[in-house]
């Protein structure tokens, strides 16, 4: 059952320019035709504006022999961008999966790419952060951090923000790669920064949700969350939703910097590494308990669960009245948001850690067998 937590809060005054639901210009990039970053837009709510057919059909596959993917594709202007664990970033045509270019390094790309203004940004195993021309695949600049980058970047005005496992949130000039500011936390950053109204939300391995002034690079507040996490917060209105390694799903009122509710499944507590998707009616996420959960966004009440055969680290995407989510059992599921009943599935054989990207009436996802799948209507 959900319970109200008492939290110790390190809180400074929030500036008065905030307004619930306000978004920066990256929302305009989506509009149903693009999916430029890990969770679709800067709010990371995991809600697609594009539609999908009732029973999506496989349109194409792109196979990398011996390869493996953990990241989530970005889709911009009819091109799919995704990096593999062997160090190749691919640009593929959305219409048929044919290769446009590839960019290769010695390490690997566990992170998801982010795309803006004809540039692709992606981190690597060795702490490198790459800016690549989206048209040609040529490197524009390179920035080195001190540890692996597993999170996707996000954008604010003319800057790009990325967290590193060296415990630092970096804000770089998107054109030049020069450091605008950097903020060190107490432990690793594995989530993507979510950005709302000039604030960045970072749920850290130090067991805190950090709220950061993006223009100044200064901490505004922190909220204890009882456990480490690498989950990217999803924001809707005044609330940020994310899970933790302790198996709790939290709703944090970011304006008041306090926990609104938490939910833990005491029947089968396991870590949560799936970032939630949220709309006005439901919060959906997966768990290492082999379950997909739906909670009420205002109360945290459990609405339904759906069992899979293995852990669910992949993050759901809400498309209309359905949630699409991959599982380590090798299946991609479409579940009815109202009752959690399965409406469609596709079995690939390989497991999913990365998540769906949905744009232009197509869903793209890649698995640990090194295959990129594109679904839609023929």
Mean pLDDT: 92
- Low-confidence stretches at least 5 residues in length (pLDDT < 50)? 1-29
- Tally the beta strands: 33
What does the overall shape look like? globular
Rg of Cα set = 19 Å
Q: What structural class do you assign from the helix and strand content? A: mainly beta
How far is it from the N-terminal to the C-terminal residue, by CA? 44 Å
Strands of the widest sheet, in order across it, are 1-18-17-16-15
Number of helices: 1
Largest sheet: 5 strands, antiparallel
Share of helix, binned: under 10%
Portion in strands: 35-45%
Structure description:
By secondary structure, this protein is mainly β. 1% of the residues lie in helices and 43% in strands. It is built from one helix and 33 strands. The strands form eight sheets. The protein has a five-stranded antiparallel beta sheet with strand order 1-18-17-16-15, with no helix packed on it. A hairpin with a 5-residue loop joins strand 29 and strand 30. The longest helix is centred in the N-terminal third of the chain and has 4 residues. The termini are far apart. The N terminus is likely disordered.
């Amino acid at each position: 059952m959900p319970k109200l937590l008492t939290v110790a809060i390190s809180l400074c005054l929030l500036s008065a320019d905030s307004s619930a639901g306000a978004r920066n210009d990256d929302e305009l990039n989506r509009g149903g035709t693009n999916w430029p970053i890990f969770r679709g837009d800067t709010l990371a709510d995991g809600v697609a504006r594009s539609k999908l057919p009732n029973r999506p059909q496989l349109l194409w596959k792109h196979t990398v022999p011996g390869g493996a993917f953990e990241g989530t594709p970005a889709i911009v202007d009819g091109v799919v961008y995704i990096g593999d664990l062997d160090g190749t970033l691919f640009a593929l045509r959305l219409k048929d999966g044919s290769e446009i270019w590839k960019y290769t390094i010695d390490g690997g790309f566990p992170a998801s790419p982010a795309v803006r203004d004809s540039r692709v940004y992606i981190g690597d195993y060795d702490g490198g952060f790459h800016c690549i021309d989206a048209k040609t695949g040529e490197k524009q600049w390179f920035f080195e951090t001190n540890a692996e980058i597993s999170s996707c970047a996000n954008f604010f005005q003319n800057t790009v923000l990325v967290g590193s496992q060296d415990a630092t949130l970096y804000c770089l000039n998107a054109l030049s790669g020069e450091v605008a500011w950097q903020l060190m936390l107490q432990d690793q950053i594995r989530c993507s920064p979510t950005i709302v109204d000039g604030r960045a939300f970072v749920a850290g391995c130090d067991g805190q949700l950090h709220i950061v002034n993006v223009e100044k690079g200064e901490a505004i507040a922190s909220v204890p969350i009882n456990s480490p996490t690498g989950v990217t917060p999803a924001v809707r209105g005044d609330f940020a939703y994310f899970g933790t390694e302790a198996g709790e799903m939290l709703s944090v009122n970011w304006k008041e910097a306090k926990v609104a509710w938490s939910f833990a499944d005491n029947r089968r507590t396991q870590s949560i590494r799936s970032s939630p998707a949220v709309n006005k009616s439901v919060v959906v996420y997966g768990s290492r308990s082999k379950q997909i959960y739906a909670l009420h966004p205002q109360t945290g009440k459990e609405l339904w669960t759906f069992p899979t055969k293995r852990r669910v680290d992949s993050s759901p995407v809400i498309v209309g009245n359905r949630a699409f989510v991959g599982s380590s059992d090798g299946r991609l599921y479409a579940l009815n948001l109202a009752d959690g009943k399965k409406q469609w599935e596709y079995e690939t054989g390989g497991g999913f850690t990365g998540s769906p990207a949905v744009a232009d009436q197509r869903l793209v996802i890649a698995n640990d067998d090194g295959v990129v799948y594109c679904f839609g209507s023929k």
